[in-house]
Design a protein that fits this description.
five-stranded mixed beta sheet
């Protein structure tokens, strides 16, 4: 009986640990075409009206709108290094100078 209880406990623990709380990169803007790939570029997290964007170093006004930015990176003016895909963005649904972005790697 103990071994069955242990087995069930281990199974439940593994099931809880494997649950994802953030969108996986494959779920982000899945129907949009990739227009540019960013690879290990320095950037800064910016907050505006409760929304978080990413500004590439050297960019003047283009904001990257990440669909899968983990809450640990929700810090205004946080310097990061990003890798990911810039997606084709409909200007009807986004403010000017904002591109949808799928993060595949981000580091502080």
């Amino acid at each position: 009986m103990r071994s069955i209880t242990r087995l069930i406990s281990i199974f439940l623990l593994l099931a809880m640990c494997s649950c994802k709380k953030d969108k996986a990169p494959s779920e982000c803007f899945s129907n949009a075409t990739t227009v540019r790939v960013i690879n290990n570029v320095q950037a800064t997290i910016k907050e505006s009206n409760g929304n978080y964007f990413i500004m590439e170093q050297g960019s003047i006004d283009t904001k990257l709108n990440p669909c899968n930015l983990n809450p640990e990176f929700w810090i205004n003016n946080l310097p990061v290094v990003i890798t990911g895909e810039v997606k084709l963005t409909s200007r009807n649904s986004q403010p000017c100078c904002t591109d949808n972005f799928v993060i595949t790697k981000i580091e502080k």
